[in-house]
Structures are given as C-alpha cells and as structure tokens.
Design brief:
heterodimer; A: about 600 residues; alpha/beta; Glutaredoxin; Rossmann fold; 6 domains; 6-stranded mixed sheet; 5-stranded mixed sheet; 24 helices; B: about 240 residues; alpha+beta; Ubiquitin-like (UB roll); Alpha-Beta Plaits; 2 domains; 5 helices; 10 strands; about 20% helix; globular; 4Fe-4S (chain A); 4 iron, 4 sulfur cluster binding (chain A); NADH dehydrogenase (ubiquinone) activity (chain A)
Chain lengths: ~600, ~240
C-alpha cells in the first residue's frame, strides 16, 4: 500500500539521519511525526525494530512528551498557550472561537481530518500573548481577527510557509538593559581571555565571581565546574539547559534570539575549565523558531575557530555544540530529567546522588547550566571575577534578567543588579497598582502588595526569572486554579505524592472555585502541600502546591467568599450523577430528580 | 585513629550496616521495620512510592535509595511520618480501583497489608475511578491494571532478571500506565512466560498467574497471619523472634 511505503520511507530516513542511535529517539520521533503527522502503533513498532530496542520503551518515550501524537490528529495542529497570563489576556475566549470556527467542542480533531485544536502549557510568549502553536510554530498576539484569519488559512490548506510573516513575529521587548543585554558580543574575546588564564586561572575567576546558577536552584557555578573537572570518566559534557518551561519566563528566549554567541561562548569557557569535548543545547520544543538561527550562529563560530577541533588554535581543546529539541515536557527543565531526555528516554528525574557532574549523560561527568548562567560565565571570562562580584548583593552577585508579564503597561525583559526591590520593578514596568506578583513562575512564590519592598535575590525572593503581575480585580482563586492545572498536567508521574497530589490539589481548588468548597477542603490543600514538599522525588512535586497555598494564605478572603457554608460538601452534583440511572429507567419526571437545597 | 562505627540510629535503635547498604536494607537486615512498597531486595532501588520516606538528620529522603552512613539519626516511626505514610497509601487507593473484598490477592497484597498496618480506616479522598484495562490474552498470566500502583517492579524484574523488557511505563502524570512489549499492546503477544520473575513480583495483583487464585484460602495467607510489620518476607528474623 502506498501509505505503508510512505511510512517505511519516513521511518528509515529518520533512523538513518540519526545513525540508528537509540539515544536520539526524541529527535527521531520528532522528525517522523513531522512527515507522518502522528506516531501510529505501526510506526512505533518499526522504530523499535530499527533501533533494536523494546517497543514498549519506544512507546514510553512517545507517550511522555506533550507534542508527540500517538493518536491520529489533524493535518494542522493548533495549540493555545494556557498560562495564567494567557488566560488573563483572554485566551479561553479565543480558543472557543477557534473551536467554533471548525465546529469542534474542545481538544479534538475535526471530522474531515483537517485540524486539531487544543491547549498547551506556557509557550514562553508571556509578553506578547495570547500565543498559539501551529504545527510547532508560534503565532503571537492572538486576537479575534487573527483567530478568524488562521482558521481561514487552515480551511484553504495554505502551507505554513505562506502565512503572513507578521503572524510569526517574536519581539525581544528588552525594556531595561544592563551589562548582559547592553554589552556587545565580540566573537572570541571571552574565550581567548579564558584560555590565556589557563584552566585553573579561569576557575579561580569563576570562584571569585561567586556566580550562582540562574536556573532557580542557585548552586554556585564554580563548585559545579570544579566537581566536573575532578570527576573521573569521560569524555565530559557541557549541557545548556534551554528548556525554559517555567510559566511566565521568557528571558532565555531573548538571550538565544539575540545573544546566542555569548551563550555558546559561555559553554566553550565551561568546556575549557572542566575539560569537556561535547556540548548540547537542549532547546524546548516551543522555541523551534530559534533552531535555524542558532544553527547559523554555531556555523559562524565554527568558521571562526571558536568551536571544533583545537579551539582558537589550542592544541587538545576540542569542543563542539549540538542542538537537541525537547518535545513538550516541563519536568525536563530538571537537570537529570533533561539528561534522560537527551538519552532518548522519558524525562523522569533520576535518583541523586550520583549528581550529573559525577555521572550524567551516558554516565559521563556532565555540567548542566542555564542559558543565562552561561552568558554570565562569558562576562566573567571577559572582565574577571572581581569585577563581576562588584554588582548585586553579597550572596547574589551580578545582574538578573526578569521576564515581566501580566497586568503591567510595559511587559518584556528587564535586567537589574540583584537586590532590586519588587516595588521598583513594578514602578518601571507600569504596574504600581498591582495586588500581587508571582515571582519565579508557577513553582515560585506569590508576593502580596504589603511585601513589595522585598528584594529579588537568593537571600530574599529567589527567582529563575519570571514575574507575573496581577492587577486590581484579579481573583487569586483563578490564579491558584491555573497553577494547579499546570502541575496536574506536568507531573511526570514517577512518585506517588506528586502524581496523585497534583491531581488532588487541582480537584480541591476546582471544587472551591466552583463554589462547593468548605474549610475542610482548604485545610486539606495545605496538608497535601506539606506532604508533597517533604516526600516528592524532585523539585516539581516539592514546589507544586506552593503557589496555591501562598494564594490561600495571603488572599484568604478571596477563597472564603467562594466557600459553601457547610462543614462538608461533595465535589459532585448529586442530581447529575443520577442521569445514567434516569436514562436506564426511561424516566425524567420531577420525582426522579433530587432537590438541591444549596445555591452557591 | 579510632575507627568510625558503621551504625545508624533509627528511632533510637542502633542499627549496624555494611558499607554500600541503603538505610532500608540495613534496617530490614537488622529486623527493624520501615514500611515500603516499590522496594524489593532482589531489584535495584527505585524510590517512587515514597512510603519508606524517613527523616535523616532533619532532611527527608527515601530509605530505599539513601545510603546508610555513620552518624545518621533516622526518624521513621514517629506519628507525623506514619501520618504521611497513611496519606500516601490513601493516595494510591483513590488513584486506582482496589476491590479488596473480592480480590484474589487479598491477604497476599502488600498495599492492603500496609494500609492495615498504618491503620488506614478511610479512603479520605474522592476516588478517581479511572478506566483501566483488563488483559486476559495471555494463557497463563492475567494483567488487570485496576490494581497497578506503578511501582515498576515488573519493569525491573523483566528487564534485569528475565532479560526481556516485557513491561514499561508509558504516559505522563495521571496518564501513566504499564504497557507491554508487543505490537498489539496485548500481553498474550509478548514473550512473557509463567516462569518469569516478572509474572510473580507484583505486590498488588495487577499481574496474576492464572488458575491458582484461591489455592491458599483467604484467611490463611501471608499477611493474614499478622501485621506486615511483623510477618514481611523482607524482614530478617532476630533471635528473639521479633
């Protein structure tokens, strides 16, 4: 059958492009899906046979990532970004409008097989949303008109390449620049400075800088690098974590779009210090539009001798970078989950220790650094550790990039020295009337207005870089519900407290939001948060219920307004649950219904 | 130089360990009970169920994955930690479909036995009532995912002992489920054999050998004899018979 031929060819071609290397399974599946639209059971069987691995293992990877479709879907796949800021900007109404355009009722494929419409997690476009992904390409600034225009293009089967350029426009929106965003990239400047210092000399500068990782955890970068340098086994690996999945964060997107040279040179500096020969940039699937430009930067750097064999003519210093795409999984931002994904497996966090610096990618010593951290390493190589430590606070040196979105006049990326007060940031972005900000994304902390004097720093309010602003009139119950939805979607499912806890929290928050909650439900949410924080396998589960509990503690009246005034209230509608019985009994008279006494 | 003793203190009890042992291994070998579900002495530590979570020198961790080290003060049987375990067990019960009274694993089921031992008297949370698959296609082995708790013991047994990789976990989050290695997705089309370790390792009866269900009647089974904290097959018997 011709279809079979098409499938065999697509599978074989993808397998050959990746040398039948099982560690490249995520890439292989991505490419096959690009050709065939979805990953059928036969496709999975063929891939498993081609790689010589268990079919169940291929199925495990194919079903783990949100962007893989293991059921048939439309020729065009439209996903609406569903972060809380997208919701505030009206994404749900636009989503319903899109569904109506095709006569769909929600997260489904049209009968003619033309289009699928669904929701997805934050796409990293918080400053120019609501955004959608169309076959993996981001379309920003959705409006009702743009929904209609997209529907029309899909209906007329216009190829994505022929859509108006304007739809795909992604702006940097840098509103405040300091040394990183304001400084130029002079190719080779920082790397040659690092080489001139020698490995130990460069590491000493890193130590003097007291740079802490910008990915959220804040581990001292020099300590990480030295541990990798001292680890046995090789060849060592440098990974740039560009899986910017934390809702409300988009500063790495800007760095990759306009400062990629600094990122890659930072990776090379790291490689020089630890003695690594291989590098990966793990790019989240949502940033597919950045892949080709990044490849171009890499090619340019190879041509300049900044990557490849004998970097900058240094005998024995070989280092190159390969870009690997993610496929929609927030948990892959966790470094061990990211490494699992790089190995072609589902992105489930590993047991630690051993830490990646000792045993990481394919068991080799591996340094995983955030995009912004590597840009900072570039600065330190260029200007020295003491210079770097001169900015910021004692425990938080240097500057920090913030992605600001939500209820403010000027959303975008802001660079400040560490230690800046939240109030100052809010004044700069035009959000003086804010009632709360969520700092650090869904896993971060919710700060209410009376705490706006607090400072952005590891000593006070730490952050990977998100600041979502909630203005007057925003209901924090809705905000909490958005975060609860997010974690219930993104738990990897490995451990009990996170896999079940995220769903229980979501159900309880939804119950409260629907007016059926009681004080007991609020207590239960707090108990669950305490359990999840103490027993979950990784940071995702440990922090998943924090934002909900923050909202509960700081905006209690908002929750209490929605409570049913009883001690116990079931989460389900008693009368509605009898519908099946009524249908079976063939009656729908008044006596077949329960009277609900409670009116929310 | 004085030699550092290889001893951890668990709830005030001095427990010796061999270097390389985990806290759980050391405890069980010494006859000290720490509740656990996804751990089995024959397989690599996994650390997913979290029932064995203890507090070591003030920090939480899974006893099944944490190495025992000199100087560790381990809290395990405190009321607070027992309450956590009870909640984790309640989570597992509402997530699946567990019909204990009619289940042929009753009395041999680790989940059921742990729940009794933890004095879990109610389900506490609303049940999820998931729609899960029953696969009777294999001549000798029944796969009933209603009871599955995703401990991955079958995955580990099949991969590490049987060398077959019949099982894997597919999906993510609440969608996680055990899948089998066949193009049809049916157990009967895999190379699983009744002799395989994977066919017998399931602690809850999601994987059941056929036609032996009630050869030992309910009431005369492993955990019918006493609480799991006393009769667990993983627990070393001390001289005083504890």
């Amino acid at each position: 059958m011709p279809d079979d031929d098409l499938e065999t060819r697509a599978v074989d071609a993808a397998l050959d492009r990746h040398r039948r290397d099982r560690t490249r399974l995520v890439e292989i599946l991505r490419e096959i899906q690009d050709d065939l639209r979805w990953l059928s059971p036969d496709t999975l069987t063929a891939v498993a046979a081609g790689l010589g691995v268990s079919r169940a293992d291929v199925e495990a990877t194919a079903t783990f990532y949100a962007f893989f479709a293991t059921r048939p879907r439309g020729r065009t796949r439209i996903l609406f970004s569903d972060n809380v800021t997208d919701r505030m900007a009206g994404n749900r109404a636009l989503y319903r409008r899109m569904l109506a355009q095709f006569g769909l009722s929600g997260d489904e494929t049209s009968a003619d097989g033309r289009v699928s419409v669904g929701l997805t997690a934050c796409t990293g476009m918080g400053d120019q949303g609501p955004a959608i992904l169309v076959d993996g390409r981001v379309v920003t600034r959705m409006t009702a008109d743009r929904v209609d225009a997209v529907a029309d293009l899909v209906r007329r089967d216009v190829a994505l390449a022929d859509w108006p350029e304007e739809f795909f426009r992604v702006d940097d929106q840098v509103r405040r620049a300091d040394v990183l965003l304001g400084g130029p990239w002079v190719p080779g400047e920082s790397l040659s400075a690092a080489i001139a210092r020698g490995r130990d000399g460069m590491l000493a500068e890193m130590r003097a800088s007291n740079l802490r990782g910008r990915g959220g955890a804040g581990f001292t970068t020099a300590v990480k690098w030295m541990a990798a340098r001292d680890a046995a086994g090789g060849p060592k690996v440098i990974v740039c974590n560009a899986d910017e999945g934390e809702p409300g964060t988009f500063k790495d997107r800007v760095l990759l779009a306009s400062h990629a040279g600094k990122v890659f040179e930072g990776m090379a500096v790291a490689a020089w210090c630890v003695g690594a020969s291989e590098g990966f940039l793990y790019l989240r699937g949502e940033y597919l539009h950045l892949k080709a430009p990044l490849e171009a930067v890499l090619a340019d750097m190879r041509a300049r001798g900044l990557l490849g064999r004998s970097v900058l003519g240094t005998e024995g210093f070989d280092f190159d970078v390969e870009i690997r795409m993610g496929a929609g999984a927030y948990v892959c931002g966790e470094e061990t989950a990211l490494i699992e994904s790089l190995e072609g497996k589902p992105g489930r966090p590993r047991i630690r220790p051993p830490f990646p610096v000792v045993r990481g990618y394919l068991g080799r010593p591996t340094v995983v650094n955030n995009v912004e951290t590597l840009c900072k390493a570039h600065e330190i190589a260029k200007r020295g550790g003491a210079w770097f430590a001169g900015t910021g606070t004692r425990q938080s040196t240097g500057t920090k990039l913030l992605s600001i979105s939500g209820d403010c006049d000027r959303p975008g990326v802001y660079e400040y020295p560490f230690g800046v007060a939240i109030a100052e940031v809010l004044a700069d972005c035009g959000a003086e009337r804010a009632i709360a900000v969520q700092v650090g994304g869904a896993s971060g902390v919710l700060v209410a207005a009376d705490d706006f004097r607090r400072r952005i720093a590891f000593e006070d309010v730490p952050t990977a870089g998100a600041m979502m602003v909630f203005g007057p009139g925003r209901d924090l119950v809705d905000v909490a519900a958005a975060f609860a939805d997010f974690f219930a979607e993104e738990s990897c499912g490995f451990c009990t407290p996170c896999r079940v806890g995220t769903r229980l929290v979501k159900r309880l928050v939804d119950k409260v939001a629907a007016g059926h909650g009681t004080h007991g439900d609020l207590l239960e949410i707090r108990r669950l948060q305490s359990l999840m924080a103490r027993t979950s396998h990784c940071g995702l589960g440990q922090t998943a219920a924090n934002a909900v509990v923050d909202a509960l503690e700081r905006f209690r009246p908002a929750f209490e307004r929605r409570l049913a005034a009883v001690d116990f209230e079931p989460a389900f509608d008693l009368d509605a649950s009898l519908a099946t019985a009524r249908r079976l009994a063939g009656r729908d008279d008044a006596d077949a219904h329960l009277v609900q006494e409670f009116e929310p | 130089m004085t030699e550092i003793e290889n001893v951890v203190v668990i709830d005030g009890l001095r427990v010796p360990f061999e270097p390389g042992q985990t806290i759980l291994e050391a405890a069980l070998a010494a006859g000290v009970w720490i509740p656990h579900l996804c751990h089995h002495p024959d397989f690599a530590p996994h650390g997913s169920c979290k029932v064995c979570t203890v507090v070591v020198n003030g920090r939480n961790g899974s006893a099944c994955t944490m190495r025992a080290l000199p100087g560790q003060e381990v809290a395990s049987a405190t009321p607070e930690i027992q309450e956590r375990r009870r909640t984790l067990l309640q989570m597992l019960f509402v997530e699946g479909n567990h019909f204990c009274p009619g289940c042929e694993k009753s009395g041999n089921c680790t989940l059921q036995a742990l729940a009794y031992d933890a004095e879990m008297l109610t389900p506490r949370f609303d049940h999820f009532y998931p729609n899960r698959r029953l696969d009777g296609s294999h001549p000798d082995v029944l796969l009933d995912l209603d009871r599955c708790i995703l401990c991955e013991l079958c995955v580990r047994a099949s991969r590490d002992v049987d060398g077959k990789s019949v099982f894997a976990v597919a999906g993510r989050g609440g969608d996680c489920r055990i899948v089998v290695n066949s193009p049809t997705g049916r157990l009967g089309d895999t190379d699983l054999a009744i002799e395989d370790a994977a066919a017998h390792v399931c602690p809850v009866g999601a994987i059941l050998p056929k036609r032996v269900g009630f050869s030992v009647p309910i009431g005369a089974r492993v955990f019918d004899a006493g609480p799991i904290s006393e009769v667990s097959p993983h627990l070393a018997r001390t001289e005083d018979g504890r």
